[in-house]
Structures are given as structure tokens and as C-alpha cells.
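Long-time lurker. I teach an intro course on protein structure, and each term I like to show students one example going from raw sequence to a predicted 3D structure in C-alpha cell notation. This year I'd like something fresh instead of my usual example. Would anyone be willing to generate the C-alpha cells for the chain below so I can use it in lecture? Attribution to the forum is fine with me.
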Amino acid sequence: MKVYFAPNSRAVRTVWLLEEIGQPYELERFQLGQKEMRGPEYTRINPNGRVPTLIDGDTTISESTAIAQYLGAKYAPHLIRGPDSPNFAMYLQWLHYAEGMIMPPINNYVVETILLPPDRRNPEMAARALKLLNRTLDAAEAHMAGREYMADAFTVADTITGHAIMMARRMGGDFSNCPNLSAYADRLQDRPAFKAAEAA
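-- Reply from a regular --
Happy to contribute to a lecture. Here you go:
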């Protein structure tokens, strides 16, 4: 199984899940410029642009959430269960907003704040990103209140929500009033699979 991804890709989420379920993989990072990444060499493997692509035999699938769902269904159905909550989809969507994966304008905030060298980052964009991000964290914290999220078992949902929370930490989100999210992030970072994915 091979994972193709571009510079600054979110492929760490895919690697994290592969480590968690113990599935062997190879990583292939594309070192291509913006124009090259729109050319035939790259789009032949990754037709959807700057998103991870996984090739598993005759199966090719792109985009990190779709990959997580595919891997969970095929190799680890016991990990698919998510938190027992009627509004989990809304919670997940909030975290995706923070990560810049659903709304293109938010993706611009992410690019302008954490994917550029510090001397090229846009301070105004960073302030807007952090304002949105902290609203997101507040909503997620309220959702998780009173629940011991991911106490023992790991789920496919954890790769999605957990990755967004790690992105939030790196962007400088305000976790001062988020004891649930802070504890959750600490538990994720302690997992051997997470450490292996970060190293990879």
C-alpha cells in the first residue's frame, strides 16, 4: 500500500491510521512546484490536487477523510464506531472548519498562517484565523463536556477530530478554557501510533 502526498499535505492523518491498525505502507512525497503539480505526472496519481492519495492494489482513493473511512471499513471495522452523539456530525464539521478542509476561504487563512515562513505570514489573516479557531474550540469543548472521549478504544473518528485539534494547537488556538480538548489532545499525543505518524 502506498500513500502519495504533496508538500504540506495532511497525509499525517492517513499515516496515523495505518500505524494504528498495523497496516504496512510506503510514503511517496511529491517535490513538485505549483505548475508541475497541475501537470500530467502528478494528476495521473493524484487527480484531486493537493490531497493525499492512497493506492491499495487496484483501488485508488484520494482525500484524507475518504481514505480514513476506506481503511477503517476494509481493515479495521472495529474502529469505525464513533462517539454516541446525535450531533457528532456538526461537531466534526466545526473541527473541519478549523482545519481549513471544507470552506476554501478558511483554507486561505491556514495557508497564510502556518504553511508559509514566519516572515511571509499575513498578520491580519492570522488574527482572523485565530478568532474563528477559538470559536471552533469553544463549540467542540461544549460538545465534549462531561464525556470521557477516547478513554480507551481508538476510532476512525479520532484520526479526523484529533488531527484537527493538533492543527489547532499548532496555529496557536486558545485552549485555556478547554480542559476536555486539552486532555483529549494529550491522550492522542501519547499514543505510539501518533508518535510514529509524526516521525514519518
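Some talking points for your students: The mean pLDDT is 75. The longest strand covers residues 2-5.
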